């Protein structure tokens, strides 16, 4: 039986964190304080300038501006990467300094230009002259604006932030950025896996959660996902799973989806993928927001402490807002109505001062020869360790507080790599991890056009760099000296090897057992179903219902019957009931299970539903307004919503001023339920002048409805998606007529009271009672 007792280091870590975490929360570090001030500024701005998302830092004039002036500064919520040299020295330059300088249009060489609207021609009717260097420069550069998108995780969104260590990881690792109150700048990129760069955010998929810590000891990248396990146990299978999941090679469809034959063909044959696939079919596959996702390092890492002891460690990100998801119908509607939903949500939350934050935590296991904990092989990335067996110990806090200034320069060009490690954190022999160590640098050579991608501003380390890597495409370093080799005497022997006392990264001297070279897995990797069942058994009834519907949808979209039947055989090995329900939906017989394993104990930590309430920061509240009513009191509600840390969107029958300076951000024609977390109805909502009552109403609806049919649809969809609804005054009648009543529908005379109750409901994310789950 494997040892289940934690090592000394693991025990020490287990006793400390809560205390330190509290202290950190009570006494915010400098960066966090700055964040608080910025958040207050953003909230104040929001009161006057109602919604985040203004395209520029200054509202535009109606006429084209013609008086030369310096470029506008970035918006208050935006910053670029820190301004360090290609080799990591702080230049002291303001990070908001722009790539553009001076008021006048120039060539890329700085020569001022008089005209960029007409090419140089031999007379007004041409022909165009080859001599036109400006035309050629402009068109040539344009021709090369695109770079290859990432082969996976092409669609993403990024933000800057700060990480503050709690000091609680001291017992486990010497990594300096985890020291108490140590602040480290970070850049995070979230992503979907399957879709192209322009695909929709809310597709059913795994999400990437990649964090670059610019530490004093070199850059540390934690390149994880929002799902703690992976499809494959060996990196050599990665091209296979990705080829299967990407669009079919003949027609190149479907985009950004797993609901097609090749994906299910692969996962039903390669059954080690079943556990990850089950997570994808669960609500985890359609997060509400990047802000409400957990993150996982997936692999087991090896850490080293100051006493020279090593532990095996799994990294976790815990969102302060809780783990929440969309419902499938919302996700699908959003694919059309707002394909940028997650990207917008992240940027808007930061701009409005609702800074997303996550606690970094570790599960710590003894480092012994077996590398097994409680019977779970720690080197098998298709397995997780239930938190009930190894609690997640908080070791620091990540806060995202600045949006990018330029998507391409930062989010697109950021390059993560699992091999970006710092002293105190090392890799293990997990064969998936080992292959990743090769892939990430290799892929950047093509994607970022050569070997010097670490010199791109977003990728520059903040620690001093003295490598002997030279030349290559896009070399930004202006290296001095004549001896980029070791040993040398001509450059005074520099650079020198660092000792441990100088903070060198030392590969841990792990014993590799004597073995024969083979292409095979250990026997422990053969169990493909017990943890899938653990996940299924840990779900609440409503989550199980969603899983059944997801499998039925995805397999229902497959063409080949054999593939559906084969996947049902895999489901039978997870759970009879799950298999039977999906089989019923597909109109196929449910097969019998073919494998046996001990019944796993459920892990409540895997479920998203129940128990706790969560902050409602950055949630979007729609307010339906009647311009003929008391708009002054609606403005008070709007301000209370801002005061409560949420974002109000006023919905009127028309755009512009709805009376008393209350500005509409949405109209009955432009609003749709999926962009709101809750909707308040502040008065009557008769059909607006652009309502096409006969068409907007469903057949059989009254020809002259009391309420605009689009408002009725808005409320009914919110109701279907189990969102909180509130109304006061004449709004109560609107709600009643829409047929929305019961749990989570709040009515009253006092707007403040209704808002308070709705906010409380948001703490549970959804009105779960509205789902009649029977699985
Ligand atoms: Fe990745 N992965 N991956 N991956 N991965 C990439 O690197 C790869 C794996 C993950 O926002 C690529 O720069 C292989 C697991 C994230 O820029 C590429 C294998 C996990 C991101 C690559 C894996 C991940 C990537 C594509 C199997 C979760 C986005 C572009 C051995 C722990 C990072 C790039 C960003 C990106 C290869 C498996 C997470 C091709 C070969 C497991 C979050 O190098």
Describe this structure in words.
By secondary structure, this protein is of the alpha/beta class. The chain is 27% helix and 15% strand. It contains 20 helices and 21 strands. Strands 1, 2, 3, 4, 5, 6, 7, 8, 9, 12 and 13 form an eleven-stranded mixed sheet that branches. A six-stranded parallel sheet has the order 18-15-14-19-20-21, sandwiched between helices. The longest helix is centred in the N-terminal third of the chain and has 19 residues, at 30-48. The radius of gyration is 28 Å and the shape is globular. It binds CIS-heme D hydroxychlorin gamma-spirolactone 17R, 18S.
Low-confidence stretches: 1-29
The termini sit apart by 36 Å
Shape, principal axes of CA atoms: globular
Beta-strand content:
5-15%
| Helicity range | 25-40%
Number of strands: 21
How would you summarize what this structure contains?
This protein has 775 residues and is an alpha/beta fold. 27% of the residues lie in helices and 15% in strands. CIS-heme D hydroxychlorin gamma-spirolactone 17R, 18S (HDE) is lined by residues 150-153, 156, 189, 191, 208, 210, 223-225, 230, 235, 238, 298, 414-416, 432, 435-436, 439-440, 443.
């Amino acid at each position: 039986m494997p040892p289940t007792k934690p090592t000394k280091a693991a025990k020490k870590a287990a006793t400390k964190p809560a205390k330190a975490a509290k202290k950190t929360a009570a006494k915010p570090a400098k960066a966090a304080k700055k964040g608080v001030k910025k958040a207050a500024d953003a909230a104040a701005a929001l009161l006057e300038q109602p919604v985040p998302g203004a395209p520029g830092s200054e509202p535009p004039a109606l006429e084209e501006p013609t008086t030369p002036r310096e470029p506008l500064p970035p918006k208050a919520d935006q910053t670029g990467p820190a301004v360090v040299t290609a080799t990591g020295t702080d230049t002291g330059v303001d990070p908001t300094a722009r790539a553009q300088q001076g008021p006048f249009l120039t060539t890329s060489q700085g020569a001022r230009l008089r005209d960029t609207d007409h090419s140089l021609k031999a007379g007004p009717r041409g022909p165009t002259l080859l001599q036109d260097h400006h035309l050629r420069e402009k068109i040539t550069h344009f021709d090369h604006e695109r770079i290859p998108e990432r082969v996976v995780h092409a669609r993403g969104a990024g933000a800057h932030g700060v990480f503050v260590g709690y000091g609680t990881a001291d017992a486990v690792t010497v990594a300096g950025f985890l020291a108490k109150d140590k602040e480290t700048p970070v850049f995070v990129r979230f992503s979907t896996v399957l879709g192209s760069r322009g695909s929709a955010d809310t597709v059913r998929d795994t999400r990437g959660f990649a964090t670059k810590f610019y530490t004093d000891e070199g850059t540390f990248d934690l390149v994880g996902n929002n799902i703690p396990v992976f499809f494959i146990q060996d990196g050599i299978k990665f091209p296979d799973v990705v080829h299967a999941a990407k669009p079919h090679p003949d027609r190149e469809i479907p985009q950004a989806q797993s609901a097609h034959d090749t994906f299910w063909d692969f996962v039903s044959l390669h059954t080690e993928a079943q556990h990850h696939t089950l997570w994808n079919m669960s609500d985890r596959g359609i997060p509400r927001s990047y802000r409400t996702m957990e993150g996982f390092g997936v692999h087991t890492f090896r850490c080293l402490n100051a006493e020279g002891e090593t532990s095996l460690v799994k990294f976790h990100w815990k969102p302060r807002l809780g783990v929440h998801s969309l419902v499938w119908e919302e996700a699908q509607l959003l694919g059309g109505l707002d394909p940028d939903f997650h990207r917008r949500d992240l940027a808007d939350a930061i701009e409005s001062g609702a800074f997303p934050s996550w606690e970094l935590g570790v599960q710590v296991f003894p480092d012994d020869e077996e590398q097994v904990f409680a019977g779970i092989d720690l080197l098998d990335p298709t397995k997780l360790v239930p938190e009930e067996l190894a609690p997640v110990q908080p070791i620091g806090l990540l806060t995202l507080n600045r949006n990018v200034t330029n998507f391409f320069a930062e989010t697109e060009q950021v390059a993560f790599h699992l091999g970006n490690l710092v002293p105190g954190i090392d890799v293990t022999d997990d064969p998936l991890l080992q292959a990743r160590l090769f892939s990430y640098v290799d892929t950047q050579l093509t994607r970022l056009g050569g070997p010097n991608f670490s010199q791109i501003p977003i990728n520059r380390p903040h620690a001093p760099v003295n490598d002997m890597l030279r030349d290559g495409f896009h070399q930004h370093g202006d290296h001095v000296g004549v001896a980029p080799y070791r040993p040398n005497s001509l450059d005074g022997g520099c650079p020198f090897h660092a000792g441990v006392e100088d903070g060198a990264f030392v590969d841990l001297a792990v014993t590799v057992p004597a073995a024969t070279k083979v292409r095979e897995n250990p026997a422990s990797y053969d169990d493909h179903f017990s943890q899938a069942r653990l996940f299924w058994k840990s779900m609440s009834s409503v989550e199980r219902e969603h899983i059944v519907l997801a499998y039925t949808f995805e397999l229902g979209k497959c063409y080949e019957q054999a593939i559906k039947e084969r996947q049902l055989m895999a489901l039978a090995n997870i759970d009879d009931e799950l298999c039977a329900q999906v089989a019923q939906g597909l109109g196929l017989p449910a097969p019998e299970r073919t494998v046996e394993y001990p019944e796993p104990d459920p892990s409540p930590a895997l479920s998203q539903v129940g128990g706790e309430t969560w902050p409602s920061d950055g949630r979007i509240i729609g307010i339906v307004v009647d311009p003929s009513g008391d708009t002054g009191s609606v403005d008070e509600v709007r301000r209370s919503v801002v005061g409560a840390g949420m974002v109000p969107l006023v919905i009127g029958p028309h755009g512009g001023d709805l009376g008393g300076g209350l500005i509409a951000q949405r109209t009955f024609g432009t609003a749709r339920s999926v962009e709101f977390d809750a909707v308040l109805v502040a008065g009557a909502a008769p059909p607006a002048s652009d309502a096409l009552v006969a068409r907007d109403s469903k057949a059989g609806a009254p020809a002259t409805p009391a309420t605009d049919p689009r408002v009725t649809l808005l409320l009914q969809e919110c109701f279907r998606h189990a969102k909180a609804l509130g109304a006061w005054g004449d709004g109560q009648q609107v709600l009643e007529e829409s047929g929305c009543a019961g749990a989570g529908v709040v009515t009253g005379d006092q707007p403040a009271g209704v808002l308070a109750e709705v906010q409380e409901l948001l703490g549970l994310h959804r009105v779960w009672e509205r789902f009649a789950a029977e699985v």
